[in-house]
Amino acid sequence: IHYLRAMISFHAAARNSLVDQMLGDWLLMMDTDIQFEPDILARMLMVFNRPLDTGQYINVLAGLYQHKANPHHPVLYMWGDKPNELLHLGDWDKLDGGHYVIPIASAGAGCLLVRRSVYDRIKKELKESPFDITPPFGEDHSFFLRLKKLGLQAYCDPMISVHHLQLTPLSMEDYQREDIVLG
């Protein structure tokens, strides 16, 4: 395992930089505002390296987390009827009560495990960087749009759940003054 940290704050450039620096066969991206269990990578790799019923392996696996803003939808999407329309995916059936993955059209990239071969195909076949912005989308949906162009299916495992941290600003009204002695 090689730990990389993006030195750029612009999301698209930071994600592309991580892809360019990757050393192994897969890359796990975790946003800094995501809280996760210490075994998240091991659990994701177990799903990643187990074949689906079709015998194929997952190339893109998203963890489940919610939007920070109300109504806190899961950051999972399906394609709508209009061209490039994304709709929130918030309801799915559990299969036999067991461990399963669900196909998704798009997700947030805050918890995302991707095989190197996917990035290589995007660069070679589409001649694009994986996370370059394709308006009207941000970098994450732009990545998933590229998967759609290549005919690649992404998945989410709802059992791999992480938490989006919500930031709350503090002001002087939050300050609880105590007797301070300066001497």
Question: Which helices and strands appear, and what pairs or packs with what?
Answer:
Blueprint (H helix, E strand, L loop, with lengths): L10 H11 L4 E5 L3 E2 L4 H9 L11 E5 L11 E4 L6 E3 L13 E3 L1 E2 L3 E5 H11 L12 H12 L3 E8 L1 E2 L19
Parallel strand pairs: 3-9
Antiparallel strand pairs: 1-8, 2-10, 3-8, 4-5, 4-7, 6-9
Give a summary of the structure in a few sentences:
The protein is α+β, with helices and mostly antiparallel strands and 183 residues long.
For the structure shown, list the relevant keywords.
21% strand; 183 residues; 10 strands; 4 helices; three-stranded antiparallel sheet; five-stranded mixed sheet; alpha+beta
Report on this model:
- This protein is α+β, with helices and mostly antiparallel strands.
- A five-stranded mixed β-sheet has the order 1-8-3-9-6.
- 23% of the residues lie in helices and 21% in strands.
- It contains four helices and ten strands, in the order H-E-E-H-E-E-E-E-E-E-H-H-E-E.
- The chain has helices spanning 11-21, 40-48, 116-126, 139-150, and strands at residues 26-30, 34-35, 60-64, 76-79, 86-88, 102-104, 106-107, 111-115, 154-161, 163-164.
